[in-house]
Amino acid sequence: MTTKYVARLDGKIVGKRTTKSRTYTHAVIAQSDEAYYRDQAYNYRPTATDKSNFKYELEIVACEGVFLAPDDTDTYGKGPSVGQRPWFNVFKNKPSAHNYTAEDVADAKAQTAGGWEGYVAMLRERAIERFERDRANGGFEPHAITWCGRPDLAEKAKASHWKASHSSNVWIVPAEIA
Asked: Shortest CA distance to 125 belongs to which of 45, 40, 35, 41?
């Protein structure tokens, strides 16, 4: 037998769950902080990972036309190789290479064409697009993040989510059989 559950917040259904074998007593509801994510998008600040990725893209651009072995064109089925980036293969304990296609190099050139400032501007635009898409799709509305069979588990889940996320609100509501 299938049991259908709903979670309501202020009379509005914010979560649904169907199960054949579990019994739920509570749902944990969260609402992401729209102001926080707006600030993160519109005032994008580059991270150490962004710096590392930019450097990697520059390495791809620099490897165009550089080959370690003229007949080595293994590009994992992506097409003919246009360059290689040397790296050390720890499994074979010897230098090796990663091949790049013309598309790989063209993408890297496009991403690094404006230098570091242009790269950060591109990342900012992507973050803004993602934020606006999430906002348009209801990403900042309350929604059920987990379902629990005991109140203490719901409290634990709430505390864990609150600590690990940027949610402005987290609630525990009773799970209702629909």
From this structure: 41
Q: Which domain holds residue 25?
A: 1-33+144-178
Q: pLDDT per residue over 62-83, tens digit each?
A: 877 665 544 444 444 455 555 5
The torsion angles phi and psi of 38, rounded to 5 degrees, stand at -65, -45
DSSP-derived pairing of the beta strands 81-89 and 26-32: unpaired
SS3 content of the chain, % helix, strand, coil (to 5): 40, 30, 30
Same domain, 119 and 49: yes
Whole-prediction pTM value? 0.74
Q: What is the token pair recorded at 119?
A: 């790269």
68-122 tens-digit pLDDT: 544 444 444 455 555 555 554 444 444 545 667 778 889 999 999 999 999 999 9
Q: How many domains does the chain have?
A: 2
Same domain, 25 and 42: no
Residues 84 and 150 in one domain: no
User: Do 121 and 51 sit in the same domain of this protein?
Assistant: yes
- Same domain? 152 vs 107: no
Burial 45-64 (b: 16+ CB within 10 A, else e): eeeeeeeeebeebbebbebb
